[in-house]
Design brief:
The complex is a heterodimer.
Chain A lengths: L1 H15 L13 H5 L3 H13 L1 H18 L5 H15 L10 H22 L21 E3 L2 E3 L5 E4 L7 E8 L4 E7 L3 E3 L2 H5 L6 E9 L5 E4 L3 E5 L12
Helix pairs in contact in A: 3-4
Chain B lengths: L1 H20 L2 H18 L9 H28 L14 H21 L2 H12 L4 H7 L8 H15 L4 H7 L4
Helix pairs in contact in B: 1-2, 1-6, 2-3, 4-7, 5-7
Chain lengths: 242, 176
């Protein structure tokens, strides 16, 4: 059932995406549309007539426009605006709401996985002690691949070595900070496991975070924010090897 | 300037979030994430497009990623990892060719058999990952069962157009 669901979405996404010449979705926002050259506008209009994906994106953009243009009084909107104001002046990000049904299920799965790993691998490796000292700026730890749009699920993660680093910790995260993969490394590259690659959805943004540690476990570098997406047909310049 | 920008856009993003999420708590979470992202990326906004265009791109990305991530979490909580490796990643060129032919056939069937609105609803649901109630609100569908009716009729037409028996059609086009 799960395979069928994932496969159906993937298949439909590819079928919809197989028309060349789709514009970026935000082109349908009124301001962007008005800024287009008349010839380009005509080309896109003609394309949309034959492309249900772009027609749907146009609907979505229009819905945004109509919501943005409305000034009708709505108590729910006022409440949300008040929440946004409150969050802006609060010292920390508001904690996300937890769906305890899923959290409980996830906790059970993690406990089971942890127990199985502990039995298989013996005692866990020493964790890096946390340190407030960050010697290198984010830009000093450069992520090479994957970055940007890649044509296929990346097989390898590569980044620049940090002088003095004894180990690295890499993470692939979803945009809501759910950790998809985390690994301790001795070298500035690592193969991305097949099961992780299989979980990378198409056209979904993932974030990558790399930290470098010295021999004493002090954090001496952290990567600048970087992200990638698997987009079939993308010009693959950054590590999207199948 | 930033204050003014946020104040101007808070109600607009709140309204669109409400359309996507359906309740004010979830909409506030979505809107807050949008503005966190805006805040993080404001430095990359070069003014080459209107702010509304840029903000829409951020908002669309956040909303779609949240929808797809939630769907994947639901799937992985009950999935057997050994069974979920997609076989279409095979490097066998024959298989890829067959797969491309299937995609072309599916695409032609979408264009030939589906009403434009059905095709758009299927796209927003399956590809953009939006929920059926969200699509109903976003497209302002006024029929009794909203977007669900278009998904059901669209899938039925696709099965018929692809000449699939009911059972295999379910496997290819199972609803979430």
């Amino acid at each position: 059932v799960i395979v069928a669901r994932r496969s159906a979405r993937r298949t439909l996404a590819r079928a919809y995406a197989s028309v060349p010449g789709c514009p970026r979705p935000e082109v349908f926002v009124a301001a962007a549309w008005a800024a287009l050259d008349p010839d380009e506008r005509r080309r896109i209009e003609s394309h949309v007539d034959d492309c249900p994906a772009c027609a749907a994106e146009r609907d979505l953009a229009r819905s945004f426009e109509s919501a943005a243009a409305s000034d009708a009084a709505d108590p729910d909107v006022e409440w949300i605006v008040a929440e946004l104001e409150r969050a802006r002046f609060a010292p920390q990000r508001r904690r996300p709401r937890v769906d305890w049904r899923w959290a409980s299920a996830a906790a059970l799965v993690l406990v089971a996985l942890g127990a199985a790993l502990a039995l298989r691998q013996g005692p866990p490796p020493l964790a890096h002690p946390t340190s407030q000292r960050v010697v290198l700026r984010g830009a000093a730890l450069e992520l090479f691949a994957p970055r940007g749009d890649v044509a296929a699920a990346p097989a390898e993660l590569r980044f620049g070595a940090v002088p003095g680093a004894a180990s690295y910790r890499v993470k692939i995260l979803e945009v809501d900070d759910t950790v998809l993969w985390e690994q301790e490394l001795a070298a500035p590259q690592a193969p991305i496991p097949d099961d992780v690659r299989a979980r990378l959805g198409e056209a979904v943004t993932y974030r990558i975070q790399v930290e470098a540690f010295d021999a004493n476990g002090a954090r001496i570098g952290v990567s600048a924010p970087a992200a990638f997406r698997v987009v079939p047909g993308a010009a693959d310049v950054a590590g999207g090897t199948p | 300037l930033l204050e003014e920008l946020y104040r101007r856009w808070y109600p607009r993003v709140a309204r669109f979030s409400l359309k996507i999420s359906g309740n004010r708590e979830a909409a506030a979470d979505l809107a807050q994430e949008v503005f966190l992202r805006v805040h993080e990326r404001l430095g990359s906004f070069r003014g080459e497009s209107a702010f509304s265009t840029w903000l829409y791109a951020v908002m669309r990305s956040v909303a779609i990623n949240r929808g797809l991530a939630a769907r994947r979490r639901r799937e992985w909580l009950v999935a057997d990892p050994d069974r979920t490796r997609p076989d279409e990643r095979s490097d066998d060129p024959t298989r890829l060719l067959e797969h491309n032919d299937e995609l072309r056939l599916l695409r032609q069937t979408i264009q030939r058999e589906l009403e434009p609105l059905e095709a758009r609803v299927l796209y927003l649901h399956y590809v953009d990952g939006l929920t059926l109630p969200a699509i109903t609100r976003l497209l302002e569908l006024t029929n009794k069962s909203g977007a669900k009716a278009y998904v059901v009729s669209g899938k039925r037409k696709l099965r018929r157009g692809l000449a699939l028996p009911e059972a295999s059609g379910r496997a290819v086009l199972r609803s979430t």
